[in-house]
Amino acid sequence: MDFDLPEEVRMLKDTVRRFVDDELIPIEMKTIDGPSLKPEYREALTKKTKELGLWLLTTPKEYGGQGLSTLALAGFWEEVSRTVALPSRSHQIFGPSVSPILFRLSDEMKQRYLYPVLRGEKKSTLAQSEPDAGSDPGMMRTKAVRNGDHYVINGYKRWIPYAETADFLQLVAVTDPTKGSRGGLSVFIVDTNTPGVSIVGRTEHMMGDVTFEIALDDVKVPVENRVGEEGDGMKHAQGFINTNRIHQACHGLGVAQRCLEMITSYTQQRVTFGRPVAERQSAQFTVTDLYIKLQLGQLLTYRTAWRLDKGVAARHEPYMAKLFCTELGFEAADRCLQFHGAMGLSKEMPIEQLWRRSRSYMITGGPVEVMRTVIARHVYKLF
Question: What is the pLDDT of residue 1?
């Protein structure tokens, strides 16, 4: 058994860590405007990521990207998550966000959708969640009914990021109500300027994000805009979601790292009742527990990423990584805030942002309660 990361992953982590320490952390309290990175920072930072070779990391090599493995991306995500300089769910300075769904399109559809996204000419978003179908996609009500050479789609989507600026949706809809999420869902590419598509709501979130509500009223979509075969929707979406769960786990690891750095530094400087706080058991026990959990989280997450790359990861494994590490990130941010007292509550430090972002990951991408339920099913099969 070899627990060391491959050399190329270690080199990537070192490069990203230096970039975060030298370029992002020093400016992190002034880069964000609402849910977005300020244009002047976006341009300057994008130029630097290209110079460092940190561009199009997730894009396969045949499409001009670097095609990094999930394991390598885990190292990248962990280091980037140590700072709040970037929007909580957008890493656009490292290249356009391209979901794996777009690489499964036909050659003709790639010309219309994938390549324009890679060139920065178009933007997209995944439209899956609904008011009654967040963690349970089987409850989805948005329906796509085939009518000759096209589908007619009616429904409603909620909590959809970037919808306001998206040129098209990667839309999950019901094509066979009798099968639910096991063969009853399909994915469609839907241009946002298609008649019947409208944004009907806007929600601001505690972590700085903005999501939208989308109504679909008799939206006609050509059959060729369906991704893959009818009923393959959950398979396409799930691959994206599993990778995203590793991303969320790595966010927790990055936050835990940063908070340990801040706690250890501050408690050695802060003197109360004649002694540095670091000499008190409350500080010592806290950093010890967080450090041990960080080691465990890294082992779990990197192992899961490696198994995803090998195609052998069981369904419950990304669930375990997300569950453990998102709760760790929030615990670390909460303890860091507590040790810093009133200063931790202030917007002069990144702690309150780390706290809010970490808390949100215990809900988005699958609540921790759902994670536990799925893992429990696996455990009951074992014993």
Answer: 78
Would you tell me how many other CB atoms lie within 10 Å of the CB of residue 256? 30
pLDDT of the residue at 34 = 82
Instruction: Identify the three-state secondary structure at position 144.
Output: strand
Which residue range is the domain that position 300 belongs to? 235-382
pLDDT of residue 182: 87
Span 212-225, pLDDT tens digits: 999 999 999 999 99
Instruction: Provide the CATH number for the domain around residue 31.
Output: 1.10.540.10
Residue 159 pLDDT: 94
Domain count across the chain? 3
* CB-based burial, 148-178: b 16+ in 10 Å, e otherwise: eebbbbbbbbbbbbbbeebebbbbbbbbeee
State whether residue 212 is helix, strand or coil.
strand
Q: What is the pLDDT of residues 24-76, one digit of tens each?
A: 999 999 999 888 999 999 999 999 999 999 999 999 999 999 999 999 999 99
Q: Considering only CA atoms, which of 98, 120, 358 is closest in space to residue 251?
A: 358
Q: What φ, ψ does residue 174 adopt, rounded to 5°?
A: -80, 125
Distances, alpha carbon 153 to alpha carbons 82, 129, 196, 336, 338, in Å: 41, 15, 9, 48, 49
| E strand intervals along the chain | 32-33, 36-37, 124-127, 143-147, 150-161, 168-174, 185-191, 197-204, 210-222, 226-227, 271-272, 275-276
* One domain for residues 378 and 249: yes
Look at residue 203 and tell me whether its pLDDT is greater than 80.
Answer: yes
Of the candidates 285, 245, 292, 240, the one whose C-alpha atom is nearest the C-alpha of residue 263 is 285
Amino acid at site 375 = I
